[in-house]
Amino acid sequence: MASRLLNTMRTGAVGPSWAVRSVARSLSTTTQLHAPVQTKSKKTLARPGVKNIVLVEGVRTPFLLSGTVYADLMPHDLARASLQGLLNRTGIPKDAVDYLIYGTVIQEVKTSNVAREAALGAGFSDKIPAHTVTMACISSNQAMTSGVGLIAAGQCDAIVAGGVEFMSDVPIRHSRKMRKTMLNLNKAKSVGQRLGLLASIRLAHLAPELPAVAEFSTAETMGHSADRLAAAFGVTRQEQDEFALRSHTLAKKAQDQGLLEDVISFKVPGRDIVSKDNGIRPSSMEQMSKLKPAFIKPHGTVTAANSSFLTDGASAVLIMSEEKALSMGFKPKAYLRDFVYVSQDPKDQLLLGPTYATPKVLERAGLSMSDIDVFEFHEAFAGQIMANLKAMDSDWFAQTYMGRKEKVGSPPLDKFNLWGGSLSLGHPFGATGCRLVTTVAHRLKKEGGQYGMVAACAAGGQGHAMVIEAYPQ
User: Fold this and answer.
1) Of 71, 72, 144, 246, which one has the greatest count of Cβ atoms within 10 A?
2) How far from the centroid of its chain's Cα atoms is residue 208's Cα?
3) Which of 85, 453, 115 is nearest to 263 (CA)?
């Protein structure tokens, strides 16, 4: 597909000048963020006989570059901090939650069910069940929608969902031959058997197996896939750098203006209190242009500056049936409405989840792109985001690959990721989904919109989208 796309899409490629205008237009909108807003009046997505499910609150630890302040912790420490932050923010009794679900990607073997360990550490009742789910970069999205399903089915009324990722300390295994030898050594019944096994060990057996950020089915790293996708859609290096600069600039504005309300302060044991993300670093086009390609050398366009960075962090949300939330005196932030999961070819369409998920979720909700007031898409790579925007705006792609009559259209950038995104705020794999949903709720309130959309790609060629509706003020 990549070569076909490359030949076909270039003729309609969006040039760097478009990116410059879009960046300028999007940046200009941030000057209006504190202006008075008036909520638009549109139809509600409430349906007769269908339970309304609401987002009551969402919090997250500061997202930090891996290997920095959180380096000596464990994943459940961060997850516990997010849960404690949620308890402090909401005041909900620790035994009033029916179930806890957390998403994570690279699991710490000592706390394989990190949801349970974090819940116990945060002081939740030991009578509350908890499980952990993994679905790559949409793991906490899956945690949330699993909770939605439990509430919709009448099994629960109050769910805490969240996600955590800790890239400062990932499991590193012995080689398979070494593991087999060690397991056999543990079973050996005589000194002779043990000595024989020890004598079979070779120097090569000691080489460790490092975790690979690569597709098992294709053996290709996600950065390599992003580079090929950007080339297929004619996304230039300049466009990618401009988009990355936009993300960092908008994130810095949002941070300085106190808009990132979901961030809680966290006292790191033995270190200082952390209260803000530390990966937001606005640069300049000149500085970014000096970086060499990170994956396809020497001609690739994906660099460290236009990619999301390895991040440590955790997030948590409280979702409830509307009836339960109101009976407990909560004022919900938003309704969680329709959502979809999609999956496609992990070789050539690994990162196109938003393109496939967006029209499906809009159809489920009975909405069009013009109805959406707030867009929050996961930024894995600048090239990935811009390729999705071009695919969504292409009738040819919709007809050739999606079996659709026409394009869905791309989100206008003056509604898109206006408080920064994963490129700048950071991307703890398992925790990003909750950040996206909470940000949509906060932006809808701030900007006076009614409908918001979250979309994200994920490893394995999967994707997710959700429509969120503002709660009446």
Assistant:
1) 144
2) 29
3) 85
Per-residue pLDDT of the chain in tens (473 residues, 90 and over written 9): 544 454 444 444 444 444 444 444 444 444 344 444 454 557 899 999 999 999 999 999 999 999 999 999 999 999 999 999 999 999 999 999 999 999 999 999 999 999 999 999 999 999 999 999 999 999 999 999 999 999 999 999 999 999 999 999 998 889 999 999 999 999 999 999 999 999 999 999 999 887 777 888 998 999 999 999 999 999 999 999 999 999 999 999 999 999 999 999 999 999 989 999 999 999 999 999 999 999 999 999 999 999 999 999 999 999 999 999 999 999 999 999 999 999 999 999 999 999 999 999 999 999 999 999 999 999 999 999 999 999 999 999 999 999 999 999 999 999 999 999 999 999 999 999 999 999 999 999 999 999 999 999 999 999 999 999 999 98
pTM: 0.91
Q: Which of 446, 466, 44 is nearest to 254 (CA)?
A: 446
What one-character DSSP code corresponds to residue 109? G
Cα–Cα distance, 5 to 3 (Å, whole number): 5
Identify the helix (H) or strand (E) that includes residue 131. Answer: strand 130-133
Longest Cα separation, the chain: 81
Closest CA to 70 of 243, 311, 384: 311
Among residues 24, 28, 8, 51, which one has the least CA distance to residue 233?
8
Kindly compute the dihedral angle of the four CA atoms of residues 325, 329, 334, 339, in this order, to the nearest 10 degrees.
-10
Q: What is the DSSP track for 202-225?
A: -GGGG--B----B-TTT--BHHHH
Amino acid at position 347, single letter: K
Distances (CA, A) of 56 to 174, 278, 317: 44, 27, 7
**Residue length of the chain:** 473
Give the residue numbers marked as catalytic: 137, 457
Residue recorded with tokens 């070779």: 202
The amino acid that residue 206 corresponds to is: L
CB-based contact 353:458 (threshold 8 Å):
yes
